[in-house]
Specification:
alpha+beta
Length: 414
C-alpha cells in the first residue's frame, strides 16, 4: 500500500529547500517532504567565504527572505557593475539607481553553503515540512519509490535535482544541450584595497569573460570562463603566477585591432550585441555609464581553484501529469551574466504562486492548469536569457575586425 502526501520534492540545493519552506508556509495544511542525498552542514563559521558563491538579484533576495534566509553578515551587497571589452576601450557601468530597481543594491553576493544551511534551519521550524535522506530509486509519474522500498504517491512531485536530473531523464522529458567548449575556473582571491562603492567587474575576452565579484573581508570571487587548456594551465600555475595572470587580465589596456571590414557586417554584429545585453538585463541608459573604475589589485589566493565545464540545457517541457521540473532540472545557462540561480529562484516564485492560487481555488496541485501556467510564465523568459547569452558569446568570441568594431559600436550605443 502506497503512503500519500501532498507534495514531494526530489533534490535539495537552494531551489529545492526554498520551495520546501515557501510552500510549507503558504500551504500550512499540506505536508511537504524533500528528498535529498545528504543534509546540509551547519552554517559556515570561518571568516573567509566559501568558493561557491552567487550574485543574487534583488528579486532572488526577496525569494530567499520569504523562505526564511537572513543573509546577515555572510553576504556582500554591491551597488554597481562594470563590463568592458579586452580588445576595445568600450565599457558599460551599471548602478542600481540608474536602472531604477527600487532598491539601493544592484545585487548581493552570498555563499551557497550558508544559504542552504539557513534554508534547512528555517524548514525545520515548520510543522508541515519534512526533510529525508531516503534515496529515490524510481519515479513513475507522481509516484516515487525509495531504495528502502517505501512507495509514496504524491499529489505533485517537484524535481529540483539539478542539471543531471534523475527525474527528467527517467521520465523522458527530452532536453536540448549546447556545449560551449569552455571551462570556468572558480576560486576566491584577496586584496588589501578597499572601495567605497562595492562593484562587480566583468571583462570580456575572445575565449570568455572574467568576473570579479566582491565578497567580504577583502575577498573577491573569481569566475574565469576560458578554453579548457587555458583553464587547466591557470589551475596548475603557482599562486604568484596565477595572481599575476588575473591582475594582468583585469588591469591591462585594450589590445590593438584593425577594423578593416564592411560597415554592414559591423552594424549587424553591433545590433546582435545590443540585443544580447538587453536580454540578460545588462543594458544601461545612454550616457549614464559614469567614469571607468579600475578593478582592485589582487594580493593572494583565498581558496583552492576548481574547474567546471560549461554548457547550456533546456528541457523539452517543464511538466507532465502530476510532475514538474524547476531550477537546473528544467534549464541551465552559461555563467557569464550570473543568471543561473536567479532564473531558478524566479521559477521557485512562479511555481509557488501558481500552486498557492490553485489550492485557494480548489484546483488540484498536480492538475494541468497551474503547471501549464508556470511553464508559460517561465519558458519564454529563460529562452530570452539563453538567446542573449548565446549572442554575447558569439559577438565577444570574434577576434577579427568585424566583431571588435561591432563591440565598440554596440557598447557605445547601449
Amino acid at each position: 500500500m502506497a503512503a500519500h502526501q501532498s507534495i514531494s520534492i526530489v533534490g535539495g540545493g537552494v531551489t529545492g529547500f526554498s520551495l520546501l519552506s515557501i510552500l510549507s508556509k503558504r500551504l500550512p495544511s499540506i505536508p511537504v517532504t524533500l528528498y535529498t542525498a545528504f543534509l546540509p552542514p551547519p552554517p559556515p563559521s570561518s571568516p573567509s567565504p566559501d568558493v561557491r558563491t552567487y550574485a543574487l538579484s534583488p528579486g532572488s533576495v526577496k525569494v530567499l527572505s520569504e523562505a526564511g534566509v537572513d543573509l546577515g553578515s555572510r553576504c556582500q551587497p554591491y551597488t554597481s557593475m562594470q563590463v568592458w571589452d579586452s580588445l576595445t576601450p568600450s565599457y558599460l557601468r551599471f548602478s542600481s539607481s540608474s536602472l531604477d530597481l527600487g532598491t539601493p543594491n544592484l545585487g548581493v553576493c552570498a555563499e551557497d553553503s550558508y544559504i542552504v544551511s539557513s534554508l534547512h534551519e528555517a524548514a525545520s521550524k515548520l510543522p508541515n515540512a519534512k526533510v529525508t535522506t531516503d534515496k529515490v530509486a524510481k519515479v513513475d509519474g507522481s509516484r516515487l519509490t525509495t531504495e528502502g522500498g517505501d512507495v509514496v504517491d504524491s499529489s505533485l512531485l517537484i524535481a529540483s535535482d539539478g542539471g543531471n536530473s534523475f527525474v527528467r531523464k527517467s521520465q523522458n522529458y527530452g532536453c536540448t544541450w549546447h556545449d560551449y567548449g569552455r571551462t570556468s575556473l572558480i576560486c576566491t582571491v584577496r586584496t588589501s584595497e578597499t572601495s567605497s562603492v562595492p562593484t562587480a567587474f566583468q571583462r570580456f575576452f575572445p575565449a570568455g569573460p572574467l568576473a570579479l565579484l566582491p565578497l567580504w573581508g577583502g575577498y573577491y570571487s573569481i569566475v574565469w570562463s576560458t578554453t579548457p587548456e587555458h583553464a587547466r594551465a591557470l589551475r596548475g600555475a603557482g599562486e604568484a603566477e596565477f595572481v599575476d595572470a588575473v591582475n594582468s587580465a583585469l588591469q591591462g589596456g585594450p589590445s590593438r585591432y584593425q577594423a578593416d571590414t564592411g560597415i554592414g557586417l559591423v552594424d549587424d554584429l553591433a545590433s546582435t550585441l545590443v540585443n544580447g545585453l538587453s536580454l540578460v538585463n545588462m543594458n544601461e541608459p545612454l550616457g549614464s555609464c559614469g567614469p571607468f573604475a579600475a578593478p582592485p589589485l589582487l594580493d593572494s589566493l583565498g581558496s583552492e581553484r576548481f574547474l567546471l565545464p560549461l554548457h547550456a540545457h533546456h528541457a523539452g517541457t517543464y511538466y507532465k501529469e502530476g510532475q514538474v521540473l524547476v531550477g537546473d532540472a528544467a534549464h541551465g545557462v552559461h555563467p557569464m551574466a550570473g543568471q543561473g540561480l536567479n532564473l531558478g529562484l524566479k521559477g521557485v516564485r512562479s511555481l509557488a504562486d501558481q500552486l498557492t492560487e490553485a489550492h485557494g481555488s480548489g484546483v488540484g496541485l498536480g492538475d494541468d492548469h497551474p503547471l501549464s501556467c508556470y511553464e508559460a510564465d517561465r519558458r519564454s523568459d529563460v529562452a530570452k536569457v539563453m538567446g542573449g547569452i548565446h549572442a554575447l558569446h558569439h559577438v565577444f568570441g570574434w577576434e577579427g575586425g568585424p566583431g571588435v568594431a561591432a563591440r565598440s559600436v554596440g557598447m557605445t550605443v547601449t
